[in-house]
Design a protein that fits this description.
Elements: E1 10-12, E2 18-19, E3 22-23, E4 29-32, H1 41-44, E5 50-53, E6 60-62, E7 65-74, E8 80-87, E9 91-93, E10 96-98, E11 103-106, E12 119-122, E13 128-131, E14 137-138, E15 141-145, E16 151-156
Antiparallel strand pairs: 1-4, 2-3, 4-5, 5-7, 6-7, 7-8, 8-11, 9-10, 10-13, 11-12, 12-15, 13-14, 15-16
Amino acid sequence: MQGGQPRFASCHLAIGNTLDQQPVPPGAGRQVDEAARGTAPAAVGSTARWLLRTEGSEALTLRQMPLLKVDMHLDGQRRILDFEGLLARETVLGAMTYPPGTRVLAANPRLPGAQPGDLLFSPSRGRSARRTGGEDVAAGLSVLQAPDGTADGPRTGA
């Protein structure tokens, strides 16, 4: 309720919803982003308006990667601003091969060396990412990678 009027808070999506021409797994949750609560959609502009969260075992394809347990922030026009999820299967990008369960997220622009569109990959506990012709990247370390596959060295605490 806001000003005595009911306001949309959240819902679960039915079969048939899409985002960027990709099907959204049924049961995904959509809710108002807390930072946007109480603002008019036009006032929000390109800031986060919605949080879309997937659960379950059906992957959502994002940037040509099958992801599970995805959290996405969307603007008022349903454009993806940032996201985080887990790789559903082994994925190769450039010289890197990431195991299933690797955490992947849109790199924060404040991260040193990050450019728009970069991704941050962090292998899960007990797993390592493989670099062709180089050292493996163990759990607890992360790789900053550009959309063209160019990878930065392992980082701690990223």
